[in-house]
Target: Sensor histidine kinase YesM
Amino acid sequence: MMKIRLRVRLLIGFLVVILLSLSTVGIAFYTISARQLSQSAENQMTQIVNNAVHHTNLYLSSYQRSMVALLSNVSVKKYIDLPSDREEYENYRYLTDIRDSIVDPVWIRNPEISALYIIGYNGNALYYFNGGTEPSLGPEETAKQIDFFKKHTDPSGRLTILNHSIQGEGAPMLTLVRRIRGLRSPEMKGFVGIEVKSEELSTLWKGIDLGTDSYFFIVDNGGRIQYHADPKKTGKALPAGLQDQISQAGVAMFHSSAEGEKRAYISRKADYSDWNLVVSIPDSQLVKPLETTRTLIFIVAGITFLCALFLANRFGASITNPIRRLMKGMSQTEKGNWEFIPLPKRHDEITELIIRYNLMVNRLSELVDIVYQSELKNKEMQAERQKAEFQSLQLQINPHFLYNTLETVVCYAVIQDSEEISEIVGALSYMLHYSVRTHLEEITVANELKHVMFFMVIINHRIGRAFEIDLRVAPDLLLRKMVRLTLQPLVENVFQHAFRGGIEDHHTIAIDAGEEEDCFWVSVEDNGCGMAPERLEELRAKLRENRLADGGGEGQIHGNIGVANVHRRIQLVFGEEYGLSVESSLGRGTKMIMRMPRTAAAAQERDAAAGEEALLPPNRSDGNAWRVG
Model:
């Protein structure tokens, strides 16, 4: 399976979170923005159309009021009722009266009105033109106008706005026309019309700015464009199908491609004219803000992604680099190179981990040093054990010859009836057997005391008197463990060094034992000459060396087993926390204390029984060298 580095995994995780966050925010923002921009565009178009409708209605209502003056005038109604064979004078009189009473005030109020006319069904017609050359309209032109108006006006007399002019070709005109009744009849008898130049009305819409490729136009019920931002399109018909879409959409915005491109339309119907006022905007213009927003979102998202990627990489490095240093340090630790890792400036969990690692390395190095030193000491102890064993082997060289010799001496002593020689040789034989044949390092206190007893047999014969040892050991401590051949050398050391001037009656040797917490101790105390402070310090320094003695000299006794060797042999058996300590005062005596660990009584009794059975001599003599205190 492919191994992916932690830094790469962290970076991938950060990238997933970043991309997910950016995608969610971007999609939500774009969706909301698109909805709001679309609604804003529709509201803007609706407001434009509503304003255009409102101003158009206001403008047309002023013309409506001018036409009301004509509709309610009696002279106009009488003129409509005149027969077609009227006199020319009548026609002139009505023409003059109506001009003076109605038309001239209209010119004053609405100078933008280009023409005003009254036409009866019977052919009567009055034409008024506001400046310029008045066209000559005969009965045939009037008949044509009557036919046209009958086809294109509301029979009920409602105002109709037409893209039509009686003045012929020229500037585009808008005609506001209504049917009118006569004075004596309720039926419609003629028409009243006002013509206004389209450019006058278009001034209302020129201020509408919808941007590039967007425009405003007005279309009548027949689908003919009455006004367009492009003058070339004014008067032309709408593309096929667009008029139906405008009628069906009502006030809602719709989209169509009837004009060659996808465009949005929204329309409103004018009250007076039933014209549709329409705003048209290309879809590309509507979506342009969305495209800008989308581009901005991508740019911001890209910059954010790069910044987040940089920060994620930095953050991942801040985690993985210390871990790499830890791995490198551990690799060096495996090789035995104790490498400490420098702490970073910040303090966090990784810093705490590095601190723990450095502490571990420090402790491991200390433990290794301790183990190394302990190993060196163990090697030294092993060497000393081998040395002690070698010394023991030296004592075992041809022991049978020594035993046979001693037996021969005993036989001669018996023949010669010498009890002293027999007793000395028997004690010596036991001591030799105890020293050479016993391979146990740990022995009971009772066995060591027995060895001392036979030693005292020899000493008593040497000094020519019985010397009693004050034995203060409690009976329950006799089976406690101690090191073999340690008690007798200390007693012998007393006779060699403490009683140098000879043995007096006041001289005593006391052997005691006791317990202190986890320690078991056995002491040998005398009241001899003692040691000077410098001699005592020299002996203690030798004991602190924790080494077996190699040769003779002060502090050592016969048989190359001295005080230093007793101390070291106790350490070799029980450990360096145990051993021998010396207390002495010049002229007051010396006390030597052996300290050993406490052991289980059952194990002591078992080992003691086996040891005593092996140590019993063939000829045993207890002598009289003990005094139990």
Q: What stands out?
A: The longest helix spans residues 6-71. Confidence is low (pLDDT under 50) at residues 393-398, 552-561, 600-624. The CA atoms of residues 478 and 593 lie 16 Å apart.
